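Thread title: Can someone regenerate the structure for this chain?

I was given the following input by a collaborator and told the matching structure tokens would be attached. They weren't. Posting the sequence so someone can regenerate them.
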Amino acid sequence: MQDTHQQSENQDNKKKKRLLLLLLALLLLAAGYLIYDHFFKAEISTTVVAGDFLPDGKDASKMTEKEISDFAQSAVDKSQFNMRIVSEANIDQNTMTGELAIQNPPSNAQPVNVVVTVDDTGEVVYNSGAIQPGEEIRSATLEKELEPGNYPATATFNVYDPDSKKKQGEVQSVLTLMVQ
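Best answer:
Regenerated them for you:
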């Protein structure tokens, strides 16, 4: 009789354990759904605007092919940049002055600043300051003294927005500084 009573108790304990496991599984499932719903579920929102429709045309007319072409060319012109600098600059060793011809053609829309660095050392030997479209530098004095000789150099044209004065980009050109 005790065996039967003990078997009955074991079965009751197994049922309780199953019931607790089932409740735990349901609780985990509910918690998982709440976490998904709160953190991961994408919100769908729809905005309906009633009565805002494009009205019929009234005064507008089609642009001519020339007007479209001129507008497109204007946009291209503003985005392009032309640089002009001599490829060889003769520099007087006593005064460090020479014909370092730099131009910012009037066809450019942006001002520039030109920085010349010696390739071997990376040393800046000239800084032009602002050069507006249509302006040029014909001669310049180097900021650093160089011994007589030929120096491969790089001229970096820093291009700026004419309104905000922020740098937009840069273009580089090679040149040789010939100190004599």
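The chain has a mean pLDDT of 82.
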